[in-house]
Amino acid sequence: MCSPFSAQNWRRASAELSSIPLLPIRRHSSPSGGTVNAENTSFDCQSESFRTFTSINGIISLARRQSQDENSLYHKVVFLCKANYGLLLTTMSGVLFALASLFVKFSNTTIPAFEIIFVRLVIQTLFVIPPAIYSRANLFGEKKHRIYLVIFGAINFACISSIYGAFTLLPLGDATVIISTTPVFTAIMAYFVLKEAWHKHDAVSTFFCLAGIVLITRPTFIFGNQSNHPSHVTNAHRLMGYSVALFGAIIQSVTFIVVRGFGNSISFFTSVFYFGWCSAILSGISMFIFQTPVLPDCGPARWYLLSVAIFGVLGSLCLNRGLQMENAAPAALMRNVDILFAFVFDVACFGEQPSPLTVVGALIVCLSTTGAVVLKWYRSRGTIML
């Protein structure tokens, strides 16, 4: 008895297939009332496609070509992007927040902090409504989640107010390096609250990222008074500023954990919407109680303020969506790339030359954030071999 995979059987099957009579042409009615002829197709035994599927070698060759296509550079890049889509979104949020900071510096106005927060959050609330309606997202959320969403909005207001307060009480470098400790608190909270894994690689990446941030910002409590810091800042103000900045970092970690805890049960449009209107109400009340609102000057100042709001809104959307798709600690780590872009904007737009320590710190931040993506890919490549 010959093997079913022998050449004789394949030739016999080909002959039998070619001897099958063609089906008669069938006519069917079209929706417009006419008749349509079905295609009268036949198998060409001499065609390349037919010979491919009637030959073992052809089938193996086709499978090998498909396997090579799947292992091509394009497919590797696509898989890497899909596997790290959440990290890409959080990185993009850092770039957008850096752009918002750039337009804050461009505005060069005496607009109070609570007024900037109020304008940004009002625009954020209005901006998120159309895409939420288009995607049929439940803006107000389910009834059982609404109280938690309101608390989430209030926590975000405390976070953004603490960050602005730290910048007014501390030198920019000191405030930035304290607030940038968010990934450390996020990792600790995610480990205990969300039961997320915390690998040694993540700890190493976090350590080097924070080390690079320290070299970039050069805080006075490490490098002394070598940096350019205002002399009018007293020790009492600095102590209060450190406390406010540390509080802001912890609160920002809480917001990351809350969004991650929501997961996909709540649309990221809903979380951004609650962040917007709750914080807008609280910032509006605080603006009239603690500060005096002013009308921005006519001209570029208003456009700069609008740009701050738009980039801030887009950054919030990317950040909240990225946190839903990615573990909290790596997402918070990638969020810190806004510091690097802020220094790039300083050089490109304001002509400020970075010091050698700044260049070294920027390289460390790039390597540590890139390492977070590479290590995550290495841990996930067990599903698909590259």
From TrEMBL:
Tell me which SUPFAM superfamilies the record gives. Multidrug resistance efflux transporter EmrE
Keywords for the protein's UniProt record, in alphabetical order = Membrane, Transmembrane, Transmembrane helix
Q: How does it sit in the membrane?
A: Multi-pass membrane protein
Q: Where in the cell is it found?
A: Membrane
Q: InterPro entries of this UniProt entry?
A: EamA_dom (IPR000620), EmrE-like (IPR037185)
| Chief subcellular location | membrane
* Domain EamA as annotated: residue spans: 85-217, 240-370
- Presence of the UniProt keyword Membrane in the record: yes
Please tell me whether the keyword Transmembrane helix is annotated for this protein.
yes
Q: Where are the transmembrane segments?
A: 85-104, 116-135, 147-169, 175-194, 206-224, 239-259, 266-289, 301-320, 332-351, 357-378
**Protein name, entry field:** EamA domain-containing protein
